[in-house]
Amino acid sequence: MIPEIGEFALIIALLLSVVLAVVPMYGATTANEMWMSYARPLAMGQFLFVIVSFICLGYAFAQDDFSVVYVAQHSNSQMPIQFKLSAIWGGHEGSLLLWALILCGWTFAVSRFSKALPLDMLARVLSVMGIIATGFISFLLITSSPFERYLPRFPADGADLNPLLQDFGLIVHPPMLYMGYVGFSVAFAFAIAALLSGRMDAAWARWSRPWTNVAWAFLGLGITLGSWWAYYELGWGGWWFWDPVENASLMPWLVGTALVHSLAVTEKRGVFKSWTLLLAIFAFSLSLLGTFLVRSGVLTSVHAFASDPERGFFILMLLAITMGGSLTLYAFKAPSVKSESSFSWLSREVLLLVNNVFLTVMAVTVLLGTLYPLLIDALGQGKISVGPPYFNAVFVPIMGTMAIAMGVSVAVRWRETSTETVLKTLWLPAVISLLMGLIFPFVYGSGFDMRVFLGISVSLWIISTVVSEFIGKFRNAQTLSSRLSQLSMSYYGMMLAHIGVAVTAIGITLVSTYSEERDMRMAKGDSVELAGYQFTFQGTQVVKGANYMADQATIEVTEDGQSVVTLHPEKRRYNVKRNMMTEADIDAGLFRDLYVALGEPLNEGEAWAVRVHYKPYVRWLWLGGILMALGGLLTAADKRYRKSSRKQESVHA
Amino acid sequence: MLMNKLTLGLLVLFCSSVSLAAIDVYQFDDPEKEKRFQELAYELRCPKCQNQNIADSNAEIAKDLRTKIQQMLVADKTNPEIIDYMVERYGDFVLYEPRVKPQTYLLWYGPALFLLLGLAIILWVIRGRRQSKESTAGNGVVLTTTEAKQLDALLNTKKGKQS
After folding, report:
1. Which residue among A344, A386, A597 sits closest to B98, beta carbon to beta carbon?
2. Domain that includes residue B109, residue range
C-alpha cells in the first residue's frame, strides 16, 4: 500500500510540475498577474508530493518491504538502519528520486527566498524549473520507477547493497553532489528567464549569483567528499583516478567555477553578459551530460548503473531538448545584449576573462579526454585508453599558469590599474614564494625537486598575494575594526576560496611527490620501516559485524621506539553476497597519514599481504576543497543579496 | 564517484580477489628499477578489467603482466621496449598515456589550440572594448549609473507595470 502511495504522490507531483511549467510562464508572457502568482504554491505542492514519495520509499526500506523490486535489490534485513536509509540512493531509480527531490527543493527555495524578485521574473524562473522537473519526474515514472513490485511472489530477503556503498560516504556524498548538479538548474533557469524577458542586466546577475555560488559550493563539497571516500574505502590510497564518472562531476564544477567568476564581473561591471548566460546554460547541460554518460552505459559497458539503453536514450533526449532549446533561444536573444562599461588591458575584467578561458579549456579538455576513446572507437580506429598520465600532462601546466594569473588578479582593480601599482603590490609576494619554493624541497625532502619547487611557489604565490592585498586594504584605515567591517562578505569569501585552491595545490604537490608505499608479506612479529615509522604486525583475530565477518589485524606503529598508534585494518566477508572487502585503517594527521590495508591471507593464514602507505599532506587536498566551498557560501551570504534591492540601489546611485 | 565505486565494486566481483595487488615478491637488483616498475604498473591498463591499472588490479592477467614487467626489467629492458611489448600483445588499449599519432593529434594538441583560441578572443574583445571609454564612478562602486537606472526601471515594473 505505502509504495503505491509513493508512486501516486509522484504522479501528482508530475501533474503539478506540468502546470508549473505552463501556467506561470503563460502568465508572464501575457502579463496576467493571477496566473503568475500560481508559481509559488505550485512549487510548494510539487515539493511536498515528492517528499511524500521519498518518505514512502524510505519507509519501504526501513520496513524491509522486499516485495518492492528496488528495495529487494538494494537492501537486506541485516543491514544497519542508517545504510538501509542511505540505500534509497544506492541505485539508479532511487538516486533519480533523490535528484527529483533536490530539484523540487531548490525550486521551493527559490520561491521562498526571492522576495526582491519581480513577479514576472520569478514566474519565469519557476516555470523553467517546472519544465526540468517535468522531464525528470516523467523519466522516473516511465523508465525507472522505484516503486515497482515483485508480485505475487517476492524474495524473503534482499540481495544486499554493494559493501563498498555500506559506508558513511554513501550517506553524505551523493546528496551533496546532487545538490550541486541540480543547483546549477537554478542558474540555468535564471539565464533562460533573462533571455525570455530580455532583461539581461546587472540586476539579473545579482539575483542569480547567490544561488549559483551555493550550488557551486555544494558541488565542490560533493567532489571533495567523493575523493576522500575513495581514498579511505577503496584500499589503495588513491584520491583521484580520472575515471569517466569523476570527470563527469569535474566538468560542471570547472564550468561552474568560470560562471561564479563571470557572474561577479557581470554583477559589478555589467560586462560579459552573453558569456555569463552561455556559461549558465553549459554548467547545467554538463550536469545533464554527466548523468547521461554515467547512466546510459556508453562509457563503461560493465557499469553497475548502466542497465538500460532506453534510459540512456531518455536522458539523451532530455539533454538534446535542454541544450537545443536553450541554445536556440540564446542565438535569437543574446546578440541584443549590450555591455555598458569599458576597461583596459590591466584590469580585473581582463584577468577574470583569462580565468574563464583557462577554466573553460580545462573543462573542454576533460570532455575531450573522456570522450576520445569513444570517438576513436566509433570511427573504427581501434580501442585506446586515456588515463591519468594524459590528464596530468595536460592539466598541470594549464593549472599552473592559471594560478599565476590568480595571484595577479587580486592585486588588480576594476577598469584600470597602472602597471606600477601592480608591481608594487606583487614584487614582495613573488620573491617570498619563489624563495620558499626553492628552500622547501631541501628542508622537507632530500634535495631539489622541480615539481615541488613549482607547486609550492605557485601555491604560496596565491596565498601571499591574497594576504598582501588584504594588508594593503588597511594602509589608510582609521581603525582596524571599521575597516574589517567595511570589507564585504563576498571579499572574504573570495580570499578564503583562493587560499583553498592553494591549500589543495600544496596537498597535491606534496602527496604526489613524497608518498611512500610498500606491499609486504607479513607474519606475526614481522615489521617494516617506512618514512621513519616502524610497522609491526601483531597477528589477526576474527571480528563479527552486523552483516559481515572480518579478519582484523593489529599493527603497531612506532617512531624512534615511541608508540604512535595501533591500527586495525580489516578484511571483511559480507554474509549475503559473500564478497570480500578491504577496510583500511588510517592514522590521519594534518601533515601525514599512515594508511594500512590488509590483503589476502598467505600460506593458510600464517602470513598476510599488507600494503602500507605514508601519505604526507594528503588532508590538505580536502581541506582546500572545504575552504573553497566555504568561500562560495560566504559570498552568497553577503548582505547585499539579502537587503531589499531598492535600499541597495539608493545607496549607490 | 559513487558510480566509480560501483564499477570498482563490480570489478571486485568479476576479477576474483587473488590478492590485494602486488605483494613484495618482485625483487630488483637496484632501487631505480623498482621505481620504474611502479611507474610502469601505474601507467598500464589492465586489459581485462574496466578501468584499472595493473598495479591496483586483482585480476590474474594483471598479476601476469606485473611478473612480465619485473622479468623484463631484470633482463635490462628499457621502458620503451617493455611498453612496445605490451602494445604488441594487447593493443593501444593498455596505454593510459595514448601515443602521439595522427589519430590522437586532436587529443594532444587540442587543449593548446583551444587555449590559443581563447586568448585570441580575449585580445579581440579588449581591443574592441578600449575604443569606447566612458566616465563612470571609480572603484568600490557596485553599480554604474546606467546599471542603477536600469535597476530602477526594473523595480518599477515590479509594481505590475508590465511591458
Report:
1. A386
2. 100-127
